[in-house]
Amino acid sequence: MTITRRLFITLVLAGSALLSGCATNAPSMTLYDLGPLPAQHAASASDLPAISVADIHAPSWLDSQMMFYRLNYANNQQPRPYANSQWAMPPAQLFSQRLKARLSQAGGIVVPASDGAINLPVLRIEADDFSQLFESANSSSAHIAVRASLFDGRNLRAQKTFIKQLPAASADAQGGAAALAKVSDAIINEMAVWLATLPPKK
Asked: Which of 115, 136, 142, 168 would staple 180 via disulfide (CB 3.0–4.6 Å)?
């Protein structure tokens, strides 16, 4: 084997080892969801109307698995994604799953709007914010803002905006995810009460 060939093989092996080391040392991605569904009822089955739930509409910056936070003490107009933490699926999908599960848990009848159920009111939700807010480097809270509209065909029966903010136990992705789960449940409970108190379809 010539010296040139031996040198070439040595460089190739060294490069492979370096790439392997980089891949091994690369930080892993941590995934979060909203956790198990708490064993409590938002409203009684007799009060909740049977509804179809449409896919939640979210702005483009929220339509991904990225976990966003804002630095209120620096620039609260700039949503920033965590580098090594993500949602298991886009927040709108997590919230939608949670909503359907909570309403069903309370005894309500929930049908996906894609199933084309006839004569059922359709609940449409627009998400405006689903993020962690940092008041300082060591203090944060979870903030969610959604707008719910209940339609009978093309007629708007009722509409309400739900905005809630709760402190996080820690100023990191784990604390933010846990707090956002609590805020989601609180808003869904309020939404269930709102649905239960709406007048029936005329």
From this structure: 142
Residue keyed to tokens 């159920």: 117
Beta-carbon contacts of residue 20 (< 8 Å; ≥ 6 apart): none
- Which among 108, 101, 119, 100 is positioned nearest to 49, based on CA atoms? 108
3-class SS of residue 122: strand
Amino acid, single-letter form, for residue 124: R
CA pair distance 176, 132, nearest whole angstrom: 6
Alpha carbon of residue 91 to chain centroid: 2
Give me the amino acid identity at 34. L
Q: What topology does CATH give the domain 3-197? A: Rossmann fold (3.40.50)
How does strand 139-152 pair with strand 155-167?
antiparallel
- On whether the CB atoms of residues 162 and 146 are closer than 8 A, the answer is yes
The tens digit of pLDDT for each residue in 155-181 reads: 999 999 999 999 999 999 999 999 999
pLDDT digits (tens, 9 = 90+) for 55-69: 999 999 999 999 999
